[in-house]
Amino acid sequence: MSATQRAGDYRVDVSRESSGWVAVVRGLPAGATEVDHFDELDVEVRDLIAGLADREPDSFDLSWHYRQGDVEYTRPVEELVHWREQSRRAAENAERARLEIITTLRAAGLSQRVIAEVIGTSHQRVAQLLAEAS
Question: Which domain of life, per UniProt (predicted)?
C-alpha cells in the first residue's frame, strides 16, 4: 500500500489481453475480472470487490494502474478522465448560464431573435429553450 493509499482502498492493475480488458485487484484473492469494453471496468471491478470483500460497491476507492507490456499509461488515462470531467462540468455551467441569459433577456422584453443573436443560436432554438425552461 502506498503512503497515500488508505486502508480499504484497492489498487487495480489493468491491461489489454487478446479477448478484452483484464483487471487484477492487488491483495485480493480471486480478485480478477475481464470485460469487453474499457468503460465497463469500474462497475465490474466494484462488483467483484463488493462480492469478495462483502462491501458496498461505493464504499471504497480504487487506484487504477494501466500497463501494456513495458508501457505504463496511467497518467495519460487519468489526465483524459480529468479533462473529460472538467468538460462535462463546463458544459453544464454553460447551459445554466445560457438558460439564465435567455430568461433574463426575455423578462427584459427582448425578442427571441435578439436573444438568439446574443447567445449565438437560432430564434427557433431560443423558443425551444424557453419552452423547456417553463
Answer: Bacteria
